[in-house]
Design a protein that fits this description.
This protein is α/β, with parallel strands linked by helices and 719 residues long. The protein contains 23 helices and 24 strands. The chain has a five-stranded antiparallel sheet. The protein has a five-stranded mixed sheet with strand order 7-9-10-12-11. A hairpin with a 4-residue loop joins strand 2 and strand 3.
Length: 719
């Protein structure tokens, strides 16, 4: 409900000043703070001045909304109306006086703003500002307020101007103070930014150091299988000979000592096995060999394998539930078995009595990535052991971590089993989960796809390619020896070459489908694979025939390598200077090739550019015919790919202009078009071929492009 407070007729400049005075007085009486009083008084002053200036007369009504304690002001006139209202409210209208900002400013300063205007019928503006004091204002309070307003003496206009000047000075002083605070804050931010930049630089340096140390550690461990296991196997074998008394009897004390040695070697062997398996996973050297097997057969093998572990504790029952409705799995059975062995051996360690139950179940899910249904198999190992506290569940999968407790004094372990199980599950495309409560036991579960997706093996090489520096020339390193790959990567660091490591022929083929390397470094002797077959394949395919292949191997086979198409050969180890010299001399021929694309279509240029990614060619782009002629004259490219249909200058005109210029008249031209090529263009002496814009078969298009570039080189050399 609105309660009227005061009405003022606007007929002169003095009335405009009076409206401002009254607005400030009423705002003060309603409890508005000083800043809001200035906002309200300034808004009323602007709007009433507009009334007097454009309509000559009008009316101002003050009222109060009793419900939400808002000051409501209505300014009305019978003037000509406002013809450019929308433009004014947007703030982009400038009147003849250069002003025209009163309405837009009033709308920003007030909580509510409404305006009605019609040409020739005047304008009515309603504005509202909510008072800071909460609650409903009573009618009695409003009557008192109205009487106070009526009894308030009108100030002299000059006093109002003086008051307005004081407000302006106070505002300017406040602005200056805030500007000083802002300047101080900016200085502090600059200091902070410098500190943050320095901190980030230090963190990047430390992260790079840790990453390199981690990689060296992982590669070292993954290549130390033979060195670690050979002496341990020797100790275990010799201790077994002594305990079996094959070379004579042992007294009781000697037998005890040899037993201690054998037990220590067994514990160390378990640690080495877990550590090596874990490092292989981290280094990406683990090999997945999927086979078909049933869960029933897997349970049967585990039952026979793990039953001897229970001979010391007859109060534990190891139960394998017969799986029902579980499909035959196609994945790496040995790794699934390794995961479950870790789960079950852990359960045996931490269960004093009761049972350990192994179960399997399956469910079908929708696989949106493959647009088909997929089956997941979950295998769980539940025990009635000591359980795990909730705050410790997140720690048990950390390497070398074991939860402290009274059992730790009598239970030994490496702290690697669960970490290894989790990583093996992830390699197989699954996950490991755990549910546990102290004193009630634990349930460890692994969920795996029933059918292993072989694409997960190549995800690592694809990620390396995606993260590669596109400004460098890619060099594919095909070697299953992590130490050799590390050496090659060290040699190429800081050069213009980007190493792309591939641990197998399969990874090399996957990399070749994604990029065209500037060169390939190939080891002939690969684990379970033959590098000769890859070399023959590279030289047989049109898309890879001209890629330099540098064979570096332990086998003395230089003559055979060169006969089969290798660019260079060297026995391991290889010196950095030799490798860089060979790469530089053999890659220079491709990196010096300038390719000019003349096409006014952005999409066509983008697709062409993607064909040349990681090719080593130097690409020049022209966005039209005239631009192409200018760039060709200036840069003298080795080959030009020319679109025929361009807006500014057609392909035929471009060819004619190029033929007239001595610097460009001999440049080979390839027609890059989706249209039928005119016979006049086909018969041009410099036209060496056509590349279709239909790039649906990207491998074919990429091979065709490289063949045309090679043809252009031969054409230039022949001339």
């Amino acid at each position: 409900m609105k309660f009227p407070l005061l009405t003022i007729q606007i007929r002169s400049e003095r009335d405009v000043v009076l409206c401002r005075q009254r607005a400030r007085q009423i705002a003060r009486m309603l409890g508005f703070d000083e800043q809001d009083q200035v906002r309200i008084a300034t808004t009323i002053s602007e709007l009433t001045r507009n009334v007097y200036q454009y309509a000559k007369r009008g009316k101002l009504d003050f009222s109060c909304d009793t419900y939400n304690r808002s000051l409501i002001t209505v300014i009305s006139d019978q003037g000509p109306g406002i013809p450019h209202l929308n433009s004014i409210l947007r703030g982009d209208y400038v009147s003849e006086t250069g002003l025209g900002v009163g309405l837009a400013g009033a709308r920003r300063l007030m909580d509510n703003f409404e305006i009605e205007t019609k040409p020739g019928n005047g304008t009515t503006i309603t504005i509202g500002k909510k008072a800071p004091a909460p609650g409903i204002i009573t009618r009695k309070e409003l009557e008192i307020l109205k009487n106070n307003i009526a009894n308030q003496a009108n100030e002299d206009p000059f006093q109002e101007i003086q008051h307005q000047n004081q407000e302006l000075l106070a505002t300017m002083e406040e602005l200056e103070k805030r500007q000083q605070e802002l300047n101080q804050l900016n200085r502090e931010l600059e200091d902070t930014n410098r500190g943050v930049v320095a901190l980030y630089a230090e963190l990047d340096e430390k992260a790079d150091f840790l990453r390199r140390a981690y990689e060296i550690k992982t590669r070292f461990l993954s290549n130390m299988t033979h060195e670690f296991r050979t002496p341990l196997n020797s100790i275990l074998g010799l201790s077994r000979i002594l305990l079996d008394r094959l070379d004579g009897s042992l007294n009781t004390e000697q037998e005890k000592q040899v037993s201690f040695i054998r037990r220590a070697a067994t514990d160390l062997s378990e640690l080495v096995n877990d550590l090596l398996d874990l490092s292989k996973v981290e280094a990406g050297k683990i090999t997945i060999r999927p086979t078909e097997f049933s869960i029933s057969d897997l349970f049967g093998a585990l039952r026979g394998m793990l039953r001897p572990l229970l001979t010391h504790n007859s109060s534990i029952n190891l139960i394998f539930d017969e799986p029902r409705d579980v499909p035959v799995m196609f994945t790496d059975e040995s790794k699934v078995s390794q995961i479950l062995r870790n789960f079950i051996s852990n359960a045996i360690k931490y269960t004093e009595r009761g049972e350990i139950r192994v179960t399997a179940s399956a469910k079908t899910i929708n696989d949106p990535g493959a647009d088909r249904e997929a089956k997941l198999v979950t295998i769980s190992v539940a025990d009635t052991g000591i359980g795990i506290a909730e705050e410790d569940i997140g720690r048990i999968f950390d390497e070398f971590t074991q939860v402290d407790g009274p059992h730790q004094k009598r239970i030994k372990g490496t702290g690697l089993g669960l970490s290894l199980a989790k990583k093996l599950a992830e390699v197989l495309g699954g996950e490991v989960t755990v549910e546990s409560k102290p004193g009630q036991g634990s349930r460890f579960s692994v969920t795996l796809p029933a059918t292993y997706d072989s694409q997960s093996e190549t995800s690592q090489i694809i990620n390396i390619i995606k993260n590669a520096d596109t400004n460098l020339l890619p060099v594919l390193l095909v070697d299953d020896n992590a130490e050799a790959l590390f050496i090659y990567e060290s040699y190429l660091k800081g050069t213009r070459f980007q190493p792309i490591p591939a641990h197998s022929v399969k990874e090399a083929r996957e990399a070749l489908r994604a990029i065209r390397p500037a060169a390939i470094i190939l080891d002939i002797v690969l684990q379970h694979e033959n590098g000769w077959s890859l070399l023959a394949e590279l030289k047989r395919e049109d898309s890879t025939r001209d890629i330099p292949v540098i064979v570096i191997s332990m086998v003395e086979s230089e003559d055979l390598a060169m006969k089969r198409g290798a660019t260079a050969f060297h026995c391991k180890p290889v010196e950095k200077s030799w490798l860089l010299n060979v790469l530089t001399s053999n890659v220079a021929s491709s990196t010096s090739i300038k390719v000019l694309l003349i096409d006014d279509d952005d999409v066509s240029r983008y697709l062409f550019r993607s064909l040349l990614s990681n090719s080593g060619y130097y690409l020049l782009e022209a966005t039209g015919g005239r631009d192409g002629v200018r760039i060709a004259t200036r840069e003298n490219p080795d080959v030009i790919f020319l679109d025929l249909d361009m807006a500014d200058l057609g392909g035929a005109e471009v060819i004619k202009l190029l033929a007239q210029e001595p610097r460009t008249q001999g440049i080979p031209i390839v027609i890059y078009t989706a249209n039928t090529t005119p016979q006049s263009i086909r018969s041009n002496v410099n036209c060496i071929g056509i590349l279709s814009k239909d790039l649906s078969n990207r491998e074919h298009s990429r091979a065709r492009l490289h063949d045309l570039v090679s043809k252009a080189q031969h054409s230039v050399n022949k001339n």
